[in-house]
Structures
1.
Amino acid sequence: MKLTTKGRFAVTAMLDIALQAPQEHVTIAEISTRRHLSPSYLEQLFGKLRKAGLVEGNRGPKGGYRLAKSSDQIRVDEILDA
């Protein structure tokens, strides 16, 4: 199976969130810095991941994204389909 750049970035970003504390929100800037990914590209991806119900977003000073369900319940094919 060949992964697209978009798919690889989405899986990498979801993995980054899964490695953080489960109840903490992770900002796109933090993911971008840790994984060396474009923040504007991540914004586009997270919009799709949020619509697919894989992440929850929160705005404001303590905002960011976190997984919408437990990491062991999220499959790679769900991320790629989103």
2.
Amino acid sequence: MTVLVFLDPAHPAGRLADAASPTILATDQGVTRGDGIFESLLAIDGVPRKIQAHLDRFAVSANTMSLEIPAAKVWQAAITTALQAYAGATDQAVVKLVATRGPEGANTASAWVQVSEISPKLAQQRAQGLDVIFLERGYDSQIAARAPWLLMGAKTLSYALNMAALRYAHQQGADDVIFTSSDGLVLEGPTSSVLLAHITDEFGAPIKRLITPHLDTGILPGTTQGALFAAAKSAGWELGYGPVAPADLLDADAVWLISSLRLLAPVNTIDGTEIGTPKIRAELSTELGELLAKTL
């Protein structure tokens, strides 16, 4: 079941629409040009998770795109309407917020909330882990500062490149991708943030350290990564942001791809090289997964 609720000034709580009927004009620039933004968040038992973090990131994307969108409280009302109308088969659902620049010649954005069932494949990836490959994104790590018109760090509808990367990975027998910059730094996955962990330092002494690539590389700020970092800090983990090279991932005790819908999925291999050991990956995934669950 899919529920659509359009943000409409005539309907303060949002306007329900039939998801099986045409609702978007063929001239909408979100369709013809990918000129728009979106957010995807998880709802559990009808309650949206990390909603403020997603609305804040949504607003940043809109500002980066010079796109006027409804206020946060209007989105919240539409989300409530959509979740109340949703009757899915599981206790988890995907809530997607979409805003486009609207039809050609219009001055008003098209905006809607979509609620649908979460893919069972995501739970499978959390349980079984992923085999991933490195792919170069084609930009250096300083491009965001030099070329703001590339919209690095904004969550836009222009996901053709990301989907092409995933198809290429599947053709190579892999599950997912970790992008690298042309100057040799780790960036992010097509739909996820990257984390790595060390449980011993360079002298073999025990530590608990989580690291993620620095946002200055133009990657999307991860809401789930941020929530996990806050929980891990309270639990005594050391946290690090900084330049991460592919060799750092291969040398880690564990690596994960993390996102709002997938949550924490361990990486089993990168380019065929095993990361850590199955025992360590499982133990760390359980520990961090429990910390993350407390934030949901």
3.
Amino acid sequence: MLLNQLQKTKNFIRKKIKTNPKIALILGSGLGNIQNQLKNSISIPYNKIPYFKQSTVKGHNGQLIFGKLNSVDVMVMSGRFHYYEGYTMQDITYPVRLMKLLGIEKLIITCAVGAINKKYNLGDIVVIKDHINFMGNNPLIGKHYDEFGDRFPDMTNIYDDNAINKILKIAKSKKIKVHKGVYFAVSGPSYETPAEINAYGKLGGDVVGMSLVPEAIVANQMGIKVSALTYASNKASGLSKKSLTHEEVLQAGKKAAVSMEKIITSFVKEL
């Protein structure tokens, strides 16, 4: 059934577009402005796409956009689905499986994160080198289809080292500070307690968030090379005297977006 649904969604999209992008981007909270950089773009609202769910979180536009970024054909997912919205892991990773069917070979995932590492400041950019899945679920649970890849995929090198080095080189050339860190994934939607953040840091997390990991796992299974670029929208609980709010996330995103856009625009050209 899932394969049939994906095929129908693929056929629907194919009738709407004239390009064959090999690179896709998932835009996180506050980063929707990147879509404004696209040329010759075609936007398809999620509510028009067969079997797509709807993004219900403020700051997520809910559109698939196809266009050129720095003269490179790209597919952009402007707004994502989250586990905490009540969707299944299969629901939130459906677009990633669709990407593979549409010919996507490389995926750039972006999102907002809370900074666990005390060296990270508000608005700092963090390229993800590894992750810890603490969401209590896995998108590969359930019926397996050989078309998706291995039933037990190797997770040693999800985040492409070569791509990470390119991002760091681009950032350095543009005098943008970028950290390399480990993403600690939780289900949300409540922010973490100070005790939880203390524990996550001891377990090896540099940043914490409520997305990215299911998408990365599925992309890895399907043979899509993954890069993940995040920004510190806030100091994690217990590391700042301020209360944590989603508005703060969106405001930090506006500040970080300019630097993120510069890196991503150059990065897609090198990919």
4.
Amino acid sequence: MNLIGLEGLKPSFGGGRPSKLTYDQLIELDKIIEKTPNISMKDVHKLVNEKFNVDYSLKQIGKIIKKLEYNYSKAYPKFSKSPKDAEEQLKKT
């Protein structure tokens, strides 16, 4: 099939690989995340693997989390040599 003109410029692919999770599974995952406070991305990864028997990379789990309109910020460790009252000292300045 050889299309000419504007029709020939339209992409002829289906839009990429289908998701391993079904729409209903995504809704169920959304409800679980909503009910679980402070769930980490690694916990979501483990949950998807165990509950839905689907193995995604952490990067793909991050994309799914964004798609579900959640935001996970990167956790940074506290500096071990900081004084115990470091937050109070910062407030005073």
